[in-house]
Amino acid sequence: MTPRLALTGITKHYGDVAANEDVTLAVMPGEILAVLGENGAGKSTLMKVVYGVAQPDAGTIAIDGVQIEITSPARARALGIAMVFQHFALFDSLTVAENIALGAPEHPLSKVDERVRELSRRYGLELHPERTVHDLSVGERQRVEILRALMSNPRILILDEPTSVLTPQAVDRLFETLRQLAADGVSVVFISHKLDEIRRLATRCAVMRAGRLVATVDPRGESEAALARLMLGADPPAIAAHDSPPGAVALEVAGLTVHGPERRHWLHDLAFSVRCGEILGIAGVSGNGQSALMASLAGEWKARPDAVRLFGEPVGHLGPAARRARGLRYIPEQRLGHGAVPELSLLDNVVLTGDALHRHGVLQREEATRVAVSVIRAFDVRTEGVGARAASLSGGNLQRFIVGRETLAEPRVLVVDQPTWGVDVGAAVAIRNALIGLRGRGCAIVVVSEEIDELYQLCDRLMVIAKGRLSPVVSAHDIGVDELGRWMAGLWPAGEEARA
Amino acid sequence: MSLALPLALVPRAQPSRALTWLSPVAAAVLTLGAGALLFALMGQDPLQGLRVFLVEPLATQRGWSELALKATPLILCALGLTLCFRANVWNIGAEGQLIAGAIVGGSVALLATSATSRAIVPAILLAAALGGAAWAAITAWLRDRFNANEILVSLMLVYVAQLLLSWLVHGALRDPQGFGFPQSKLFESVARMPIVIAGTRLHIGFPLALAITAAAWWLLARSLIGFQLKVTGLAPLAASYAGFSSRRVLWFVLLSSGALAGVAGGLEATGPVGQLTPTISPGYGFAAIIVAFVGRLHPLGVVAGSLLMALFYIGGELAQSRLGLPSALTGVYQGLLLFFLLMCDTFIAYRLQWRRTARATAA
Amino acid sequence: MESFVALVATTMNAGTPLLLAALGIVISERSGVVNLGIEGMMLVAAVLGFTVVHWTGSYGLGFVAGALAGAALAILFGAMTLGLLTNQFATGLALALFGAGLSAFIGQPLQGLTLPARAHDGIPLLRDIPVLGPALFSHHWLVYGALALAGAVAWFLFRTRGGLVLRAVGESPESAHALGYPVRGIRFAALAFGGACAGLAGAYLSTVYTPLWSEGMAAGRGWIALALVTFATWRPGRVLLGAYLFGGVTMLQFHLQGLGIEVATQLLAMTPYLATIVVLALISRNPRWIRLNMPASLGKPFNPNA
What we know:
The complex is a heterotrimer of chains A (500), B (363) and C (306). With 500 residues, chain A is an alpha/beta fold.
């Protein structure tokens, strides 16, 4: 049988980095192919090539046996390739109908509604056409994306990390839709790094590592450990174990209510506490209030004085510098632009949270240099020197620098948001070990993360944030992934507020 | 309808250091080239035109003193704008702040009689600084309290300041012995700025501007507030993370910038002009915007850029008197310089790359 | 009654250049691009329009020249911001300054010349109605052209696929590009339209409104038009109201003088600028509301090759 899509020898370089190196892959009609790989393995680049957003430096693409060039997204759509993006390509201020109409230039505006209704019935994608996308939930937005992609009757549907923002229940619905599409003869290509989902859904799995295609397997016949080994190239590194009783209450949140500029910034009467020598993890799909909680803990957003207490002292009304002076430090999710200034040097970036590095309004450069050098050395940051611009560091190195900057200040409370997002394996291990070491020295740590495995590795206790509310707190040993997933959808036992 | 050009702009991994400083030079050269073309189009010998424009002003010592004199208000305004633009506060109303400074400084100067002591000179400058700062404070308050866009507000205030000056020199400040012309009395000589080089018009404003340049350099490189304003301009989220007050930065840069522009206005009024007239400034406040960009928002660059811009001003005047060309030539040159600078600046962050049209097939 | 007629008539006249420029800005800003150089484009179009009418006697040609000049400058702006990815704000400022300088340069020999004053045709039949006739129906054709343009822009934006695509590009050029739309081409077209409108406004100023050339004669109308579009949240209907309101404010000084109120001309001349500041302050108080109504990508650069 002729492959619907055949990629041969696809190579794409960005400067010195080989994003894709000699990738040869075929997709059959009606199959669900998963493309598995870590962050930075080259999956997204390969899909960009197929969708015409990027041009390969070498290699050919053939559809139904005919070699073609995909020079732009318009050409890809004309060839029957449709894509559902990880970060949705939707227009917030326009309605569902308008968004879908934009994805279907061949259909006259008046006929769009009819076709939408037909497609939503067939594939179980319920939607109200007049609603503004701005008001939709993440799961609903994805449905709009998929409907829009389906309007052009694609023969190849590509989905880039479609489940990263969904609750487990929404994932099930999505998988039903995809199975129906495959049954109708559409080739589905599904990019993911979630091993369990790939094993549930895909009939074939292409594993990518460092830009190359390393294996093509049937995921249903492989264990998760085997897939992980293929993806990482080795067994995942072990994390140092732990066992020590927690101490006094270091951070206490009570009655924290926030009404930020958008609904996803709303928090409703949050309450929890963290003790010295323990790590509390907060799980949750992004957009449920994490950024508001982080900003309130760090002092970027002010609250009532006793909404946040540090060692019993009300600090809710204090700013970041005052909280740092009392031993609370924060590592934000976004490295460039929040945790560090990209255009400034590492030396300057050390001064950002280095309150002791200026006296009477004058910067103390020698001392700042000393601190920067010690951070670089202690955390093995690969860089030309303290004068290097923050933007010149790789993600992993910059995260090492920022984590080092905050940890070396020996905080008594550390708040971390997505500690190892977008970071290479080596740096992730180093960072997690640093957090564990900090805990061993009596620091109280709050970790917000979307990586459930990371939370289980690091945390003593867990809770979930959903729609601005907190679940009860449980010990990490006492809750399984399935139940955690239910809690992430807001379905935790009612009537229990998180009080530990 | 997409144009598939064979060349594409791709982002560089690192901004090019070399081009950061080469770009203004390239822009200046391109501007002069365009200027030569302009001369030719107007029936003038381009080399002759360039000579009158560029070389003649620098031929004598007096020429250099005039250059420094013209550069003084530009340096002062552009230093203030450097602080603002670095903090991402787009103060476009330096012209208005300059006029406000001239009005207040000039009003103090008008109080002088032949018996007043020389101490009125620092009083005039202080008053001028306060006048400019007060005018800038309006913009700062509207942005702080109402989140009003500072570009539009500061610009509207320029028109208001111009009308205010016009109203005053037609009325309250008009010289009763002036035959009805809209201008103030000539200032007493004690209220005029002291001259530093005998035989020229160059007054203390120039050394003052240079001293302030050094202070501005120190502020940006070594002080906490300088660091705070840089971070606020580059990454507002990081500034919030650090706990820097964006309000404090806003007020600091606008008040400083207003004060500097005000001093520039006071110096112009009590220096070369000697009285208050409706046209106290040939657009120095706007030219300073261009100077700030050309000078890479760096105090030393600002001085160089001011000298270049001053050259354009003087060259334009000479071109009018010698070659009969419209004096508005200066404005054209200034605009061209900024255009060319923006175009050359593109290559600091981006480079050209040939788009592959042929695809190599896999072996 | 006299003064009512005069008030309405002068308001419509004064509001027309603001309306024309602002409608052009609505389209170009809806595509996500901020062109601050409107003032410069109006001035260049004014001096060129005046020159053409002065030499050829044809007002039609004058308007065409003005519109073409505006469009050409807007395309230059587009080449820099969309092609070379220069900063939109700085480039717009550069255009404003350059336009001011260029227009002063070209217009220097024309300073002080005037065109013969002409009576306007107005709309036949309607202009003969007592009171309403001279107030509403006796103006230059471009006054009615501007009103028609307002309706056309509204219809285009909200009732056609083209308008939907334009709004999508302004909301998220990345998404529009991913869907296969030619973002740069659309933005170029939007800018050119904006430039042509600013050009028409400029030519109107120097050939109809005050038929003379004087350096800087736009007197900030380009900037006011920019502010106006923000007040009106990028909707043509509100732009129309705002343009006439500000036109009325500009005329206020003359009407107050006519009523015998003694205030210095310069102070009265400040009213449009002060009014702009006041409205700007009131509108901007709620940043969330502006963000909700604003084309989301306004002012941000977009590079399809990144």
